[in-house]
Design a protein that fits this description.
InterPro entries: 3-oxo-5_a-steroid_4-DH_C (IPR001104), Dfg10/SRD5A3 (IPR039698). This is 3-oxo-5-alpha-steroid 4-dehydrogenase C-terminal domain-containing protein. Its main location: membrane. Keywords: Membrane, Transmembrane, Transmembrane helix. This protein has about 250 residues and is mainly alpha-helical. The protein has 8 helices and no strands. The longest helix has about 35 residues. It is elongated and about 70 Å long. The two termini are about 45 Å apart.
Length: about 250
């Protein structure tokens, strides 16, 4: 990725294609790229970094925190939906430049076939240059990141509470009522936190990308439905379940 700057650039990575630079060995001529487009590209990178932070934490929790029992099963429809979602979600976050990335990859493959490995340009990695460009993103990106981190932290806390309950169930043979953090106000705070997380991505994107709004709408509608089912299960399972807890949206639903 090339820096957010208006001067001509010479880069040998995907930035050559996305931001208008060129490389001496490239088969493709340089083109001028507006600074506004470079900003959109860097914003997409920022959103993808946030998504990576989320999925890596979820992977860690799945292995070490949530303590699924050996008898736990997932419906095949849910499994296929998950595969679709985590393929579509990153593409939604970078749809402004995804076609260009695929085009760049195809061009690189052509160059590799024509020239061979030894004649391919050396990949450059400038960490400070990357950080500098990210720091130049506008306030919506950083406000969205703050909202994202807020939801991210609470979701981890709620998953830790659920993980402890699962341990208690295995030891005592009975599932208990969760308490602590956002569980004091809603029955599915981990779902609420997920909505907050994707709301943060909407804000970080500037709110002008329809595909990210559609992503947010899919997440919110799916989790609200799941939270309603969870609420009914809690009320049926426990006679002493707190009556002041909403399903997922505090003081609303």
């Amino acid at each position: 990725m090339a820096p957010l700057a208006s001067e001509p650039l010479l880069y040998s990575t995907v930035a050559s294609h996305l931001t208008g630079g060129s490389h001496i060995f490239s088969l493709h001529k340089p083109r001028s790229t507006p600074l506004e487009y470079r900003y959109l590209v860097w914003r997409s990178v920022f959103l993808l970094l946030l998504m990576e932070v989320q999925v890596m934490r979820r992977l860690y929790e799945t292995i070490y925190v949530l303590n699924y029992s050996s008898s736990a099963r997932m419906h095949v429809f849910g499994y296929l939906t998950g595969l679709f979602f985590y393929t579509a979600a990153p593409l939604s976050l970078c749809c402004v430049c995804a076609p260009e990335v695929f085009k760049f990859a195809a061009n690189q493959l052509k160059e590799f076939i024509v020239k061979g490995k030894n004649q391919m340009p050396v990949i450059e990695f400038d960490l400070w240059g990357y950080m500098s460009s990210l720091m130049k993103l506008g306030w919506p990106s950083w406000l969205g990141a703050a909202i994202f981190i807020w939801g991210w932290i609470h979701q981890h806390r709620c998953h830790a509470i659920l993980g402890l309950l699962q341990e208690h169930k295995e030891q005592e043979g009975e599932y208990g009522i969760p308490h602590g953090d956002w569980f004091e106000i809603v029955s599915s705070p981990h779902y609420l936190a997920e909505i907050v997380i994707y709301g943060g991505l909407v804000v970080a994107s500037g709110g002008s990308d329809l595909t990210i709004w559609l992503l947010f709408g899919f997440v919110a509608s799916n989790l609200i439905f799941a939270a309603a089912e969870t609420q009914r299960w809690y009320l049926h399972k426990f006679d002493n379940y707190p009556s002041n807890r909403f399903a997922i949206i505090p003081f609303v639903y």
